[in-house]
């Protein structure tokens, strides 16, 4: 087996740099929702000791002193760049698993006729750099777990050409000997502590431990990891993304609010998003949970956390049905006199649309399906929420601060780079 993992270095930061080369060499951070914390850091920022998730107000002095470029998250840009990244890899191999927005697993079996696979991958790295402006690293190995490790070294050692392969015992031994077990994919804090008590602190020690002995003391997960470290592939490529069993949409507001209208509009927005997700995976949901809360960190505010679940008469994927249920839910939980900071919804009891059993009294209206289909098509073509339910409102006064967002270079005609 030949697996590969291609990963974009500092993905959000690299997307920003791709459209503004002046950012190269300058410290760059991208902030989380509501411009709170640093969720992506350039290497210059990492070198200054700024940790992942550091709150902006705690690093203000560094931001000033080192002239950081600071961005709000620009999800339209990152999502589009992620699609393009995936498409570039698809030109090199058809067997891909999109593991996250900036990480793709793939398999190269059957591609041996291309000769030196390391060189073939270096060509891919160059191609992605030239085509998208994104710096990536590739790890090649006989298992997915080893790919993660190969990729880690490709990045941390700044390997020439961006590709590192782990096939020979010599390379494997060198790589695993100095790798702490907690750096292995799938080995969390608990396993790390437990393994340390048994004298296992490096990946090499885990690989060479007796399999039966490990199985007796740990779950099958750790045993599987041990086998993967030995080069025996236990984890396949999941080419089809698994369907979600629950869909959750929740966000904090930019400002606290007491208004039921604002809450209803925020919830209406979340319901629309969730139903689009629901339909895109061809599922229906049986119930919806709606929740609202004040800010638990705000000492001077009276606290209120409430939620309620409403069961629909029949499983459905119809936005209007869920909007009506959500409004009903909000009426039940809303209380005046509180400053609300967050609202969210969850669709539960998901099942495949094609296999739902209805009873004698259910009359399915094909017309409703057609309306939803048309709405999704129009919104996909002309922009999110061009068509929407009235309960969602038009002002979106609740949205979070994102004052430092870069233009939507690739998804909006108005934001396309021009000569200036
Ligand atoms: Mg990455």
List keywords for this structure.
alpha+beta; MutS, DNA mismatch repair protein, domain I; Alpha-Beta Plaits; Dna Ligase, domain 1; globular
- Main sheet attributes: strand count, strand direction, barrel closure: 5 strands, mixed
Task: Measure the end-to-end span.
Answer: 51 Å
Average predicted local confidence, pLDDT = 91
> Quaternary status of these chains?
single chain
CATH architectural category of the largest domain? 2-Layer Sandwich
Number of strands: 13
Beta-strand percentage range: 15-25%
Helix content: 25-40%
CATH top level label of the largest domain: Alpha Beta
Bound molecules: magnesium ion
- CATH H level of the largest domain: which superfamily? Reverse transcriptase/Diguanylate cyclase domain
What is the number of domains?
3
- The stretches of 5 or more residues where confidence is low (pLDDT under 50) are none
> Gyration radius, to the nearest Å?
25 Å
Q: Strand order of the main beta sheet, please? A: 5-6-1-7-8
Could you state the order of secondary-structure elements as H and E? EHEEHHEHEEHEHEHHHHHEHEEHEEH
Cα shape: globular
Count of DSSP-assigned helices: 14
């Amino acid at each position: 087996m030949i697996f590969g993992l291609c990963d974009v270095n500092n993905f959000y930061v690299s997307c920003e740099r791709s459209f503004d080369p002046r950012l190269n060499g300058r410290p760059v951070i991208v902030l989380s929702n509501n411009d709170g914390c640093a969720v992506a850091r350039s290497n210059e920022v990492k070198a200054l000791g700024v940790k992942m998730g550091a709150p902006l107000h705690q690093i203000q002095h560094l931001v000033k002193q080192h002239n950081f470029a600071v961005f709000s998250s620009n999800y339209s840009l990152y999502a589009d760049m992620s699609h393009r990244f995936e498409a570039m890899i698809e030109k090199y191999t058809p067997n891909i698993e999109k593991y996250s927005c900036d990480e793709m697993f793939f398999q190269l079996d059957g591609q041996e006729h291309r000769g030196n696979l390391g060189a073939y991958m270096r060509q891919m790295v160059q191609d992605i750099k030239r085509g998208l402006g994104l710096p990536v690293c590739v790890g090649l190995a006989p298992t997915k777990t080893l790919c993660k490790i190969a990729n880690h070294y490709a990045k941390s050692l700044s390997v020439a050409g961006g590709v590192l392969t782990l096939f020979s015992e010599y390379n494997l031994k060198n790589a695993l000997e100095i790798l702490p077990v907690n750096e292995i994919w799938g080995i969390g804090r608990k396993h790390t502590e437990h393994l340390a008590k048994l004298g296992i602190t490096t990946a090499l020690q885990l690989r060479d431990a007796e399999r039966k002995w490990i199985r007796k003391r740990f779950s099958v997960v750790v045993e599987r990891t041990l086998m993967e470290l030995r080069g025996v592939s236990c984890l396949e490529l999941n080419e089809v993304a698994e369907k979600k069993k629950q869909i959750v949409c929740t966000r904090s507001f930019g400002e606290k609010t007491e208004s039921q209208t604002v809450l209803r509009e925020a919830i209406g927005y979340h319901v629309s998003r969730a139903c689009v997700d629901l339909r895109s995976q061809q599922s229906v949901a049986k119930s919806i949970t709606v929740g609202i809360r004040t800010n638990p960190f705000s000492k001077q505010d009276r606290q209120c956390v409430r939620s309620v679940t409403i069961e629909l008469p029949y499983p459905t994927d119809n936005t209007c049905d869920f909007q009506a249920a959500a409004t009903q839910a909000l009426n039940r939980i809303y209380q005046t006199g509180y400053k609300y900071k967050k609202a969210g919804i969850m669709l539960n009891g998901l099942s495949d649309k094609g296999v739902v059993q209805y009873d004698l009294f259910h009359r399915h209206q094909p017309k409703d399906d057609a309306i939803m289909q048309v709405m999704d098509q129009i919104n996909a073509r002309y922009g999110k929420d061009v068509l929407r339910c009235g309960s969602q409102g038009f002002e979106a006064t609740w949205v979070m601060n994102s004052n430092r967002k870069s233009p939507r270079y690739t998804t909006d005609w108005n934001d396309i780079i021009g000569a200036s």
